[in-house]
Write a structure and sequence with these properties.
single chain, 367 residues, Elongation Factor Tu (Ef-tu), domain 3, six-stranded antiparallel β-barrel, four-stranded mixed beta sheet, 3 helices, 23% helix, elongated
Length: 367
């Protein structure tokens, strides 16, 4: 019976030893390598990657969302009453400025124009004869002379007005672009103001966005902006600020801006959503770290700085003040100096005064 108890005790000790060994293996897997101090006691060493701080130029961007709009979009309306007798352009076709789109029945107006021309011609001949009689032969009265003169001018004006109305029975494109929609067909009846077609000029385009009012003094017309589009991954377009609003919207506290951009290949469409990155200012000597290197602590934001101590490297916490950021990078406005070595990989496993081993040294301030 006693021999059996001894055997069970030996098995339990062996199991405990295996469990302790397993715990030691987990620490190594997390990047903490065992070491020893001068007395031979084990010391944890964490593998990290560091970035040496070197001042560099940093551009701060303001990022907002904007809507892509056509630079020019016109709804063409009829100017005369009548029935559409011909349609010359299909939906989706390119049109040039002044090109015929549709034709309204002009039979009545054409007859009125012919009548007005005849009346104008008669009035003109009457005026010429009355003028010769009055100015050359001194025959007739001045009132007859004036009546003939003004009668000729009135008849000519009436004829020209009818000719202008006749010309308006041909509906033309006021701008060059794409016939994006057509609202009439042959046989449709139109009145003055009836919408006939919509023409969109999609090159160039413009993006309209709102910038928070706190940046009101930082933007002027003529500046540049970079634009990206969720539905066109990998495409970045540079545009030009053509308009900066002077008034702030009462509802969202932003002021409007417009950015012009080329669309020669037609890939961009009005109505798309654009991400606008407009440069606000350039910092000449900024200390920049990856955003992930900044850790939120009880006292605020901090980073781990590697310092040499007695031939060993230790990580020390450093409280910092962060500034503007862009592209996964953030400016450190206070708390760091040039030459400091900041932990950029492995900081989540660290505590203050932990021993570390740098596995690489990234270029100072690199993107």
């Amino acid at each position: 019976m006693m021999n059996r108890r001894v055997t069970v005790g030996i098995v339990a000790v062996a199991a405990l030893a295996v469990s302790v060994a397993g715990c030691g293996g987990t620490g190594e897997a997390n990047g903490a390598q065992p070491s020893a101090d001068s007395s031979g006691a084990p010391v944890r060493v964490v593998d990290v990657e560091i970035l040496e701080m070197q001042p560099r130029e940093f551009i701060e961007y303001v990022t907002v969302t904007g809507d892509v709009q056509a630079d020019r979009e016109v709804v063409v309306a009829g100017e005369e009453s009548g029935v559409i007798r011909a349609v010359y352009v299909d939906k989706g076709a390119r049109v040039s400025e002044g090109q015929q789109i549709a034709k309204i029945d002009d039979s009545v107006l054409r007859a009125q124009v012919e009548q007005a021309r005849s009346e104008a011609q008669l009035a003109k001949e009457t005026w010429e004869r009355q003028r010769r009689l009055w100015e050359v032969d001194s025959i007739g009265s001045e009132i007859a002379y004036l009546r003939a003169k003004y009668g000729a001018e009135t008849a000519d004006a009436s004829a020209r007005a009818l000719e202008a109305r006749l010309a308006r029975t041909v509906i033309r494109a006021p701008i060059a672009g794409t016939l994006d929609d057509r609202m009439v067909e042959v046989g449709s009846t139109v009145m003055p103001g009836t919408q006939v077609a919509r023409i969109v000029d999609a090159d160039p385009l413009k993006v309209r966005a709102g910038i928070p009012e706190r940046f009101a003094g930082d933007f002027r017309s003529g500046g540049t902006a970079m634009l990206t589009f969720d539905h066109l991954p990998g495409r970045t377009v540079q545009g030009k600020l053509t308009f900066v609003g002077t008034a702030v919207d009462d509802q969202n506290r932003t002021f409007p801006v417009e950015i012009a951009l080329s669309n020669r290949d037609g890939m961009l469409k009005p109505g798309m959503v654009a991400k606008v990155q407009a440069p606000r200012r350039t910092l000449a000597d900024a200390l920049v770290v990856p955003r992930d290197a900044v850790v939120r602590g009880a006292e605020g934001y901090m980073v781990y700085v590697v310092a040499d101590e007695g031939g060993r490297s230790r990580a020390e916490t450093r409280i910092v003040t962060t500034g503007p950021g862009a592209g996964g990078q953030v400016v450190i406005e206070s708390g760091l100096a040039a030459g400091d070595r900041v932990v950029v990989v492995g900081q989540q496993r660290l505590a203050n005064r932990d021993m570390v081993r740098a596995t690489n040294r990234a270029p100072g301030g690199g993107q």
